[in-house]
UniProtKB/TrEMBL annotation:
Pfam families: NMT1 (PF09084)
Main location: periplasm
Name by which UniProt lists this protein: Solute-binding protein family 3/N-terminal domain-containing protein
Gene3D superfamilies registered for this protein in UniProt: Periplasmic binding protein-like II (3.40.190.10)
SUPFAM superfamilies assigned to the protein according to its UniProt record, in alphabetical order: Periplasmic binding protein-like II (SSF53850)
Family: Belongs to the bacterial solute-binding protein SsuA/TauA family.
Gene Ontology CC annotation, any one: periplasmic space
Upper classification of the organism: Bacteria, Bacillati, Actinomycetota, Actinomycetes, Pseudonocardiales
Length: 340
């Protein structure tokens, strides 16, 4: 009898959890929604959190819950499963999904440079002096299938290697990534600030060999051959956008207001508004990293057509599915939700 009661209780809990999980693409009620972030402490997603810290979501009549996930691929999976409504992730996932005949669309652009750094661990198990030396090496990314993973595959292919030549390991993007590099659990890693700045401070900048750096216009030009390369965006399914157009416009407005606020305030003022734990115990390094990152943020949230084309061109170089698919880029993003 006791076992039967326990079984009935577990079934009831499961039914409640199933009922609470929203159907993917469903209309949100009362302005309540969840944004999945592919590594919330990372500076590339700073506007998503800062908009909440500044009260801009609330000003738009929205009740936004931010869910921190290990990487962009995990955030995308959460959206597909219905546990988050919108993703704060990289634009390239919308192209990846269209190649799979799934409609996913970005509606506000936060980052115009990828701001990704490929660095060598000071305790690498082998000499690594160039990207060609990564063949057979253990290389960390935020999560397999994430944009950091895409970046690694692109660079390997660009330098004449098989895109799968390195052994990819998911190490997250913040403290976990720093520890993996500091302890030599990986030979190299694709990193994002503030993690790369924290690592350089802890072990010495001269002990961390940088193979490539896309935090600046020069780095983007060298790696991608374009002056700007759209990266972090808010995106959701085409179905969700069709059912929640007004909510999407409010989200886009909150993000654009945040981007304008970032442009007008100092790195120290920006850091003061962010959760203290994001600094990983060194506020000075965090402020410096924000100072370097300011240049990379979009000014108005717009997705440039040539930027979308550049992302598609890069992805096509290492992903055969994307290269073969009839991708309509105009269906992977929209600027119609931005404030006019």
């Amino acid at each position: 009898m006791k076992r039967a009661r326990v079984g009935a209780l577990l079934l009831a809990v499961a039914l409640v959890m199933t009922a609470c999980q929203q159907k993917p693409g469903a209309q949100v009620e009362g302005g309540e929604l969840t944004i999945g972030v592919g590594g919330q402490p990372l500076l590339v997603y700073l506007p998503t959190t800062l908009a909440q810290q500044l009260g801009y979501y609330e000003e738009e009549g929205l009740k936004v819950k931010l869910e921190d996930l290990q990487g962009g691929s995990k955030a995308l999976q959460a959206m597909q499963g219905g546990s988050v409504d919108v993703v704060s992730g990289y634009y390239d996932h919308t192209i990846q999904m269209q190649a799979k005949k799934k409609e996913v669309k970005s509606f506000v652009t936060m980052l115009r440079y990828p701001s990704i750094v490929l660095a060598v661990s000071p305790k690498a198990s082998r000499p690594i002096n160039s990207i060609a030396d990564l063949a057979g090496a253990n290389v960390g990314v935020t999560a397999p299938g994430s944009s950091t993973d895409f970046f690694l595959k692109y660079l390997l292919g660009k330098h004449g290697l098989d895109p799968a030549a390195a052994n990819v390991q998911g190490i997250g993007g913040d403290a976990g990534a720093v520890a993996a590099m500091e302890q030599g659990r990986v030979d190299a890693a694709v990193m994002i600030d503030p993690a790369i700045s924290v690592l350089q401070t802890r072990v010495g900048a001269d002990q961390v060999k940088i193979l490539t750096d896309t935090r600046t216009a020069q780095g983007v030009q060298e790696d991608f051959g374009v002056p700007a390369y759209p990266a972090a965006v808010l995106y959701s399914s085409a179905e969700w956008l069709a059912n929640n157009g007004d909510t999407a416009r409010k989200l886009a407005n909150a993000i654009v207001k945040t981007l304008r606020w970032i442009e007008k305030h100092s790195p120290d003022e920006i850091a003061a508004r962010m959760p203290a734990e994001y600094a990983q115990g060194d506020r000075g390094v965090y402020v410096q990293a924000i100072g370097r990152a300011k240049e990379s943020f979009s000014r108005d949230g717009t997705m440039p057509a040539d930027g979308a084309q550049a992302v598609h061109r890069v992805l096509s170089q290492f992903d055969a599915e994307i290269a073969a698919a009839p991708v309509d880029l105009t269906r992977t993003y929209s600027n119609d939700y931005l404030p006019r």
